[in-house]
Amino acid sequence: MKHYGTKVSNGLGLGKCVIINDVVPEVNDSKIDSTSIDNEILKVNNSIDECIKSYENIINSLIDDDLKQLCDFNKMVLKAKSLKTDIENNIRENLINGAYAITSYFNKKADDLSKSDNNYLKERSTDIIDIKNKVLKSFMGIKSFDLSEIKEDSILVAHEITPNILLSGDLSYVKGIISEIGGKTSHVGILANTLGIPAVFGIKDSIKIFSDGELLFINGNSSYVENELDFSEINNIKDLIKKELEIKKELDQISDKAYTIDNKYFEVCANSGDLVELDKIDKNKIDGVGLFRTEFLYLNKQVPPTEEYLFNVFKNFAEKLGDKKVIIRTLDIGGDKKCSYIDIPKEENPFLGYRAIRYCIDNKELFKTLLKAILRASVYGNISIMYPMISSLEDIKACNAILNEAKSDLDGEEKIYNKNINVGVMVEIPSIAVCAEEIIKYVDFFSIGTNDLVQYTLAVDRVNPHVSKYYNWFNPGVIKLIKNTIDSTKKYENKFTGMCGELAADPLGIILLVGLGLDEFSVNINSVNKVKKLISLLNYEDTNKFVNELLELDSSLEIEKKLDEFAKKNFGKYY
Length: 575
Ligand code: PEP
Ligand code: MG
Description:
Mean pLDDT: 90
Largest sheet: 8 strands, mixed
Strand order of the largest sheet: 1-8-7-3-4-5-6-2
Structural class: alpha/beta
Shape: globular
Distance between the termini: 24 Å
Bound molecules: phosphoenolpyruvate, magnesium ion
Strand content: 5-15%
Number of helices: 23
């Protein structure tokens, strides 16, 4: 039986269900005798030191930088001066027991973080609780769940998988992670992605539905977990996993450019958003960065990043990419991305509200700081600027006016920048796609953001699960807007249309976009090789003819069915 949850990390995994019921120790507020104060404090300090040591041991045995960073964070929390003194004072002044003093200290810290408007800091509050439980267990002599006891392929299931669980030993037998709570931006979500472990979160009552020891199949690509598997299903799944591994190995070797069978070239770039991804980017395997999401540089902070900080990030990217392009999208804050220091009031319809360029135009100094940083970095590589959430020519003019001010400021400061930097816009709002032919006269390129274009064209909130069945990028209305946008740049030799929305990495989307003659695909770094491979299996002339026939159809279902047949015929095992 299949149980669907939310997508956290891709991949397929088969293994025995290991239910983690990591019992949180019960704590009461009983008082201690004044003669035991020193002993109680000593016990608390010893347990803190023991946990610090345990993190140090893990750090020394780790190769993965993200895990190391997390352990460093946990160690730093335990090494904070206030920790031991606050707990000691609490015990001395109130004669409360050590376990209660530990609990009070960490609960207060977690509570403060959970009230933050900043999603990143909010998520960190669960890390603090995780650390508290580790210290408590050590204080009470309770044994924690230990990964090193797992000796066969397993799928971990818990109400909440915490980083401490993943940090408790060797992960080689962990084939999947199922957590009832947590999200893609939680540390565990981020870790699962970095470690390449399939993860599906949010299946209600997972620890009750699945039983310890039963065989589970986790499909992180389609975000479901299957149990009650029979013999033939297990064999099919084993085949699927084997094929996926073989294909992954084969795709990892690809470093060529993407040409169709009849030699038409398509650019394949990566989407990126932070410095961690910079390490993962192999310049030789991509044609550039088609979307750099700057908001990630703002989200994890308590104050806005400085011009100097932003400049250094962009400069590093530009230098690493050499002459390959880096398209830096200006701040796309609002919608589902909130920041504590950015003052966007709670709105009824945040995706239709004060978002991205609308906020930036009104908050000129913040916007100009970012533009100046991009301009200064532009002399170190091949950087372009891209404005998100543009709905009219007036928006573009307002942004360009601020860009010109940023340039004059830099002239005054005698700082150099590329005076002819390319400026493009995202096509996310239907008005721009409809008027693409007029709008393109004012910009150097378009990048179609289908994640938003679909939600605005079909009036479907992209994060509302109740209407997700209406979110269909093969709707003929959406396809016509994409075609109109692509066609508008064809008349200019130096202008192009890219796509940085998720449709660009969808196998059926690739057929459609190759047929429509999209110039540049920009996709998640892990999808680059697969996109190149699929393009190389298509014949442009045939695909173009096929897609022109699709344009005559008026039903999304029919379009999808035809694309599916075409994919089966052309992509074979790669589909
Ligand atoms: C898009 O809307 O397609 C896009 C790439 O932007 P984001 O997902 O960041 O809104
Ligand atoms: Mg968008």
